[in-house]
């Protein structure tokens, strides 16, 4: 399907441009309409390459976060907030939530500069970027993990203490696939999966925050709905806040994969919200007056 307006001018994504910190805005009007953001491909993939210099992510006002809970938590209910995610899989402490956000955003951003060979090629679409960064954020980032990733990897933040995928309550099947409160039988049937497309991420694994970017926190997701794109009408992006690399003092960075099509494998893009808000195709502007922009959502494990 033809885009209804021309995209902004693209710039080189080669090594020279990256060294200059050049930023690109993809042909969203064309590529995103064809984005295979969560087609039924096999789940998989490993961990990504992370920039070597750790940098704390600045955070928005405290009111944008859920209240911090005690550092020592005893989970006494299967699903106390009835959100479908077992309490044992949620991150209760402020420290765990911050660690997850820093790993999640750093790993996602790293794919823009050098997509990891460990990221399964068949999983490279918009939802695949979210799944990949999410899954790897919950691993134990020990010597074996660092060695497997290579010399370009260093610690970004402390590991999440509540659990990791190797000893977590859900294992690798961390994405809920339907609504309703959690039941113990959910871990034994198909309720949780290693795979989730963009709509599944929105409907069952995240909660609406706002259509106002001032309420967004690092690691939140942006969702768009383009109903005329019948195969894959949903698209997801990751809000970084201040970027780790080439931030330029800005606090509104976004990273996303354009999605794959039969003619194009797509690519990871990194751009500021303020640039997307001026996109020539109004349907891709992350602003409240755009009915195709569904808003910012927060992962349920951080709620």
Write the layout of secondary structure elements.
Layout: H1 15-19, H2 28-31, H3 94-113, H4 126-137, H5 143-149, E1 175-176, E2 192-193, H6 198-205, E3 206-210, E4 221-225, E5 234-241, E6 253-257, E7 268-272, H7 273-276, E8 293-299
Antiparallel strand pairs: 1-2, 3-8, 4-5, 4-8, 5-6, 6-7
Helix pairs in contact: 3-4
What would your notes on this structure say?
- With 303 residues, the protein is α+β, with helices and mostly antiparallel strands.
- 20% of the residues lie in helices and 13% in strands.
- The chain is built from 7 helices and 8 strands.
- It has a 6-stranded antiparallel sheet with strand order 3-8-4-5-6-7.
- Strand 4 and strand 5 form a beta hairpin.
- Helix 3 (94-113) packs across helix 4 (126-137).
- The relative contact order is 0.22.
Please give the largest β-sheet: 6 strands, antiparallel
Number of helices: 7
Please report the total strand number as a whole number.
Answer: 8
Cα-atom radius of gyration: 18 Å
- The helix/strand series, from N terminus to C terminus, equals HHHHHEEHEEEEEHE
In whole angstroms, how far apart are the ends?
38 Å
Mean pLDDT: 79
Widest sheet: strand ordering: 3-8-4-5-6-7
What overall form do the CA principal axes indicate?
Answer: globular
How much of the sequence lies in strands comes to: 5-15%
User: What does the oligomeric state look like here?
Assistant: single chain
